[in-house]
Amino acid sequence: MAKTFIFCEFNNGKIKKGSLELLTAAKAAGAEITALLIGPGSTEAAPEAGHYGASATFVCDSESLKNYNPMAWSKVVSQTIKNSGCTVFLATSSMTAKDLFPRVAAQLETGIASDCTDLEFNGDTPIAKKPLYAGKCKAQVNFANSPIQMILMRPNQLPIGEPDTGGHCEIKTLSAPEIDDRLKITDVKKGNTDKVDLTEANVIVSGGRGMKDADNFKLLDELAETLEATVGASRAVADAGWVPHSMQVGQTGKTVAPSLYIACGISGAIQHLAGMSGSKVIVAINQDKDAPIFAKSNYGIVGDLFEVVPKLNEELKSVLN
Ligand SMILES: Cc1cc2nc3c(=O)[nH]c(=O)nc-3n(C[C@H](O)[C@H](O)[C@H](O)COP(=O)(O)OP(=O)(O)OC[C@H]3O[C@@H](n4cnc5c(N)ncnc54)[C@H](O)[C@@H]3O)c2cc1C
Question: Is residue 91 a part of any domain in this protein?
Fold first, then answer.
């Protein structure tokens, strides 16, 4: 089976769900897996890669790589992939990955497919598909003549297997590269939420223009608290300045695929649907029974969200607590 290299993202000492999905898929395909983690804390998180099937894990556990630096990171990744002799490379299609891996692909003179939603293996060959035209169709990617087949998968698309806590991987430490003076990260401003990022969230409660103003988003925050969900929004709302653009879901916002997406006061424009139609269950709350969002929803509630959302929250609280 193909030597498969997986870039694992991690947070608070744990490998992120999207990366666990990739480890699971490669393990199920019988691949020989090498993982790579970059940044402070990577040594602590590395053993988990072994529990999900990696036989070796590289770590570059350096304070100098605390913040994403495209030049330093691409140097580490390209060199490590090259030395590994892998023919398949997998990573999550995160914001960082979409900036980093095209650079790496260029350095390795190989092909890359980002934003994929389907991944299967046919023997040594990975078969990936990615949505086109705002999700109207999918293209199967062919990596003819690419020495390494690099695939970036959207999170929440594949199952995560049970960890084998007896599974060990050899941990190999890499030294950090010199930081190139041409590009310096001087400051990173984190969002003011400790919620899971929209692209990784399992449950999302989203608000649109029907929320009427910014203050009313506290209704969605309350519902999100009950459901351990992350709050998203339509572009109309982000453009109006009611919420930051980082909360926008859609063609020009984030692409999400949670288990449950609750759309409140969102009409269901094609550009919004492009970002959330991969959700497993969609619930829409809208006072207009003809709103297009209902055609894409598994459950629809026709009504005033200012009445429905608080009632729904009370009911869910009594069931879940
Ligand atoms: C190039 C391009 C890219 C775009 N990218 C995106 C994108 O990434 N994401 C995105 O979302 N949009 C995007 N848009 C904008 C998109 O076309 C829509 O304008 C936008 O999604 C509409 O947002 P909305 O559903 O919140 O507002 P509206 O379309 O105004 O819908 C508001 C809904 O709220 C309902 N409502 C009102 N009051 C209540 C109430 N009290 N209770 C219940 N329901 C109520 C109404 O019935 C209505 O259906 C893009 C547009 C373009 C041209």
Answer: yes
Residues 156 and 45 in one domain: yes
Q: Write b or e for each residue in 42-51: b if 16 or more Cβ atoms lie within 10 A of its Cβ, otherwise e.
A: beebbbbbbb
CATH number (domain holding residue 23): 3.40.50.620
The residue whose C-alpha atom lies closest to atom 4 belonging to ligand 1 is: 271
pLDDT at position 192, please?
66
Residue type, 66: K
User: Of 138, 173, 208, which closes a domain?
Assistant: 173
**Residue 14 confidence (pLDDT):** 96
With the most atoms of ligand 1 within 8 angstroms of its CB, the residue from 199, 235, 243, 305 to mutate is 235
Q: Which atom of ligand 1 is nearest to the CA of 267?
A: 49
Residue 85 lies in a domain: yes
- With a Cβ cut-off of 6 Å, ligand 1 is lined by 208-210, 234-237, 248, 250-253, 265-267, 269, 271-272, 275, 285-288, 291, 304-306
φ, ψ for residue 174, nearest 5 deg: -105, 145
Q: How far is the CA of 14 from the centre of ligand 1 (A)?
A: 36
Q: Helices 95-108 and 70-84 sit at what angle, rounded to 10 degrees?
A: 60
Please give the distance, rounded to the nearest whole angstrom, from the Cα atom of residue 233 to the centre of ligand 1. 9
**pLDDT, tens digit (0-9, with 9 covering 90-100), for 102-120:** 999 999 999 999 999 999 9
| End-of-domain residue from the set 156, 173, 190 | 173
Ranges of the chain whose pLDDT falls below 70 = 192-193
Is 0.90 surpassed by the pTM of this model? no
The distance in angstroms from the start CA to the end CA of the chain is 47
